Each structure stands twice: as structure tokens, then as C-alpha cells.
Amino acid sequence: MLENKVVVITGSGQGIGKHAAKTFAQEKAKVVIADFNADLAKKSAAELSALTETLAVHADVREEESVKKLIDQVISRFGQIDALINNAAIVPHFAWNIPRWPLIADMPVEFWDRVIHTNLYGTFFGTKHVIPHMAKRKSGHIINLYGGGGRRLPRSFAHAQSQTLPVGRRLAQRAKIYGAAESQDRRAQGGRVS
Ligand SMILES: NC(=O)c1ccc[n+]([C@@H]2O[C@H](COP(=O)([O-])OP(=O)(O)OC[C@H]3O[C@@H](n4cnc5c(N)ncnc54)[C@H](O)[C@@H]3O)[C@@H](O)[C@H]2O)c1
């Protein structure tokens, strides 16, 4: 079912994004590994090329131009995008040697900006630039990752990515023009253009 579908996963140089990329690769989808760590992106793409066709792209989701270039590059290579997974994020907790987030009283504004630009704007830019291609084909899926904590608005400011919930809902509403479905999954949600 996924064979030859083109799947773009941001932040797939490591972690959950890489795991998702491997899962798609095992199903023979063409997988685009997009990450701002170019070495990690190349390494993941090289590993998964044993399973399927892969493309490593150096992209920074905080920069609109970089995201636009990513989407353009994928379209010029594969001619279509069947799924975009907005996965790249600055994660607030344990794992993979990432330090815990500072408490708000100690948090430099640069850190705050980096989180907002990665977790929130990154999802917006990816969605914005992939939609026209999916709309043209009346087909495509957008999946937004977020850090869990349920579908209610966050009690603290801490999880900027939770703000992608309304973005996803809005997308699903708009995509209904094409007959969209909104995922009910607690951790991954977005819209389907079909
Ligand atoms: N780890 C968890 O327990 C957990 C739980 C629920 C949801 N999530 C969500 O899953 C997603 C992935 O989390 P993870 O734990 O694999 O994180 P991770 O830190 O292991 O991986 C994040 C990846 O994103 C890349 N990245 C960071 N900033 C980027 C940018 N500006 N542009 C492009 N790439 C960038 C990093 O290089 C890295 O490869 C996140 O959206 C997170 O909120 C994680």
C-alpha cells in the first residue's frame, strides 16, 4: 500500500523521526530524511537506502526559505509528496543526551525563541509549502507530532508544540474542501487531503 509513496519526515536524522522513516522504508515508500544536522540526515538516508530509495536533505524547519527549498527539492526529484510528517522539534525532557529544559525563571529568551521557531513555526512552514502540491493532486497526508499531554490546551507554557493542535484542526477544516479526515491519535494529528 505504501510502495512508491513519497514520505517527507522532518527531524528524521535520529530518534522517533528516524524510526518512522525506517518503518516507511520497510514498506518500500520513498523516504526523505530532512534534518538540520546534515551528517545525521546523510547517515540515516545511507542506512535506509538498503531498504528503499532515500534522499537526505539539509533543512532547518525554523527558516521558511529552507523548508520551501526542501519541498521544491523533493518535488523536483520525485514529482509528488504523499505524506509530510512534521516531526522536528526541541523535546523538553530526557533522552538522547538532550539536557532538560531550564525552568522558566532561568530560561534565556534565545532558548524560548528556538523552541517556538522549531516546534511551532516549523510545523506551519512545512504545512504551508506542501499543501499546494497536495491540493493539486487532491491527495496527501500531513501528520504533526507533539509531545502528548492530551488534546486540551496545555496548563503551562512549556509545550509550544501543543499549539500545533489548533493548526492541525484548522488544516483539517480547510482540507475538508477535498474531503479530509482528522486523525484522532493523541500524539500525531493533522489533515488528509484526498
Ligand atoms: N521522545 C519522546 O518521548 C516523545 C514523546 C512524545 C512525542 N515526541 C515528539 O516526537 C518528535 C521527535 O522527538 P524525538 O524524541 O525523536 O526528538 P530528538 O531530539 O531525538 O530528534 C529531533 C530531531 O529533530 C532534528 N531537528 C531539531 N531542530 C531542527 C530544525 N530546526 N530543523 C530540522 N531538524 C531539526 C534534530 O537534529 C533531531 O534529529 C517531536 O516532535 C516530539 O515532540 C517525543
User: What share of the residues does DSSP label as strand, in percent?
Assistant: 15-25%
Helix-strand makeup class? alpha/beta
Shape: globular
* Corresponding CATH superfamily: NAD(P)-binding Rossmann-like Domain
* CATH C-level name: Alpha Beta
Topology as a string of helices (H) and strands (E) = EHEHEHEHEHE
Unreliable runs: 153-159, 176-188
* Biggest sheet: strand arrangement: 3-2-1-4-5-6
| Structure annotation, total helices | 5
Structural commentary:
This protein has a single domain, classed as Rossmann fold. It is 41% helix and 16% strand. The chain is built from five helices and six strands. The protein has a six-stranded mixed β-sheet, with helices on both faces. It is globular and about 50 Å long. It starts with 5 loop residues before the first strand and ends with a strand. About 10% of the residues have low confidence. It binds nicotinamide-adenine-dinucleotide.
Q: What would the keywords be for this entry?
A:
194 residues, Rossmann fold, 6-stranded mixed beta sheet, 5 helices, 6 strands, 16% strand, binds nicotinamide-adenine-dinucleotide
Any chance you could write out the topology, listing elements then pairs?
Blueprint: E1 6-10, H1 15-26, E2 30-35, H2 38-48, E3 54-58, H3 64-78, E4 83-86, H4 109-137, E5 140-145, H5 164-175, E6 188-193
Parallel strand pairs: 1-2, 1-4, 2-3, 4-5
Antiparallel strand pairs: 5-6
Helix pairs in contact: 3-4, 4-5
The structure holds nicotinamide-adenine-dinucleotide.
The site of nicotinamide-adenine-dinucleotide has 29 residues, from helix 1.
